[in-house]
Amino acid sequence: MESNFKQIVREAFFYLFPSFCIVCNMPVETCYSFRLCKRCRQELLYVRDWEVAEFEKKLPNVDAFLSVFLYAGTFKKLLWLYKEKGMRQVANLFYEHVLNLILSSGFLYPVVSVPSRPARIKKRGFCHTGLLADRLNGYFRYKPGISLVFSDKATNIVSQKELSAEERRKAVEGRFAASAEAVYCEESVILLDDVCTTGSTLNECASVLKTSGVRRVVALTLAIEL
Ligand SMILES: [Zn+2]
């Protein structure tokens, strides 16, 4: 009886306040904290431990590697909405997953994000990795003593999508630098980026951090692209 009543109230609620999936725009029937329908949730693919271990081999400059999703299906669409459409609410879902991963990994270090190109930040209105890093640092009440910036010396900035692994490695050389406003050097940091494909960006950023004195760099990406 009670469950019937609850069912009626629930249906009336969704009738009065319909909610739609932010990815496919279909009605969302259940009370999730984030508007994603059941089908899109099922297409959110998580990485398996052995896939992360395989990727770690591409990252000689980092001490450990963590990742959440596979760059496919719903994740790909969510990242597009976040990066290209500036839909900040997507950060809530990413934040939840990354925070849980950090807490379960035990690597409770300040988070340093891989910076986006200044022109992209200007267009989008925010740095998509920086926004997440700020929220994570806020949770732990960290104020990282070091951060990364796009280097003034970085000229010839080309999209990495069409490049081979070796071309990517060369393309990111000298692209990042430790911020001139760095207050002090952290002993250990989490280096946060959106997607890891060849690992060239993470290796380069880890190298810059280590040259600046950071001893331990744990790379964490939202996704890996197989
Ligand atoms: Zn959907």
From TrEMBL:
Key words of the record: Glycosyltransferase, Transferase
SUPFAM superfamilies registered for this protein in UniProt: PRTase-like
GO MF, one annotated term: glycosyltransferase activity
Keyword Nucleus in annotation: no
Residue ranges constituting the Phosphoribosyltransferase domain according to the UniProt record: 122-222
Family that this chain belongs to: Belongs to the ComF/GntX family.
Name under which the protein is recorded: Phosphoribosyltransferase family protein
Naturally occurring in which organism (per UniProt): Rarispira pelagica
Lineage per the UniProt record: Bacteria, Pseudomonadati, Spirochaetota, Spirochaetia, Winmispirales
